[in-house]
Design brief:
Blueprint (H helix, E strand, L loop, with lengths): L4 E5 L2 E6 L2 E2 L3 E2 L2 E7 L5 E4 L6 H10 L6 E5 L9 H7 L4 E3 L2 H6 L13 H6 L4 E4 L19 E4 L4 E4 L3 E5 L2 H4 L5 E5 L3 H4 L6 H15 L5 E4 L4 E2 L9 H11 L1 H11 L1
Parallel strand pairs: 6-7, 7-8, 11-14
Antiparallel strand pairs: 1-2, 2-5, 3-4, 5-6, 9-10, 10-11, 12-13, 14-15
Helix pairs in contact: 7-8, 7-9
Length: 260
Amino acid sequence: MDKRIIQVADGFWNIRGSFKVGGLIDVGTHASLVRRENGKYVFLDSYTLGDAEKRHIDEITHGGRDVEAIINVHPFHTVHVRAMHALYPHARLYGTSRHLSRFPDLPWEQTLIEDPAAHEMFEGDFDLSVPRGVDLVSANENVHFSSVLVLHRASRTIHVDDTLMYLRLPSPMRLLGVHDMLRFSPMLAQALEKRPGAARDFRRWAEELALRSHDAENLCAAHTTTLTARENGGAPIKDRILKALEKADRTLKAHERKYG
């Protein structure tokens, strides 16, 4: 198996990729392959598969014939969209409003993945959640925070792009008993909508996310790494999300002081 493909749980594989900022610093990226209840497969996000990765995916999906959809959930993760579609041209292609406007020549499904209709379409397999109180597509293209978070019910796995970051800490921190952490992206302050109530809306959404994730066991974050049940020696994911919200409280209160 290609070492960049991690079987997170039964029916869920996370593909760890490379993305270099300025061509120098590799902050990583990812996509996930998920088996649906009907036995078919979908990709969450797009990534240009190498030969070894493609062979492994083909073994799982019967030569790619069982890949029925590619679901792009982050409006600013667009580098690999064309390559993924070229590999699986028969798969239904879903994206956010920004995907459709950026690549109008691709055969997109007209149901946007951030819309409630899409959530209903996939609700048998996935719980889709769009953060509230923040811009999904920021006018500042350097602000990458919001995306559509995906909880795969069967494997109890959350697929998330920039919104949440999971970090495994270096040895000096581990000596102090701190091994890892889950935090909301530091871009939160810039992503919050500049209006009264935005911080309150985000806080309520995060609390709802924790509640909806009460039985989640795994989390795959784009630019950091994966947290799996077999590696988790700390708190459950629900509690980690609430802790991340607690750590974001200073940012949210500063926004409330400014905008109400």
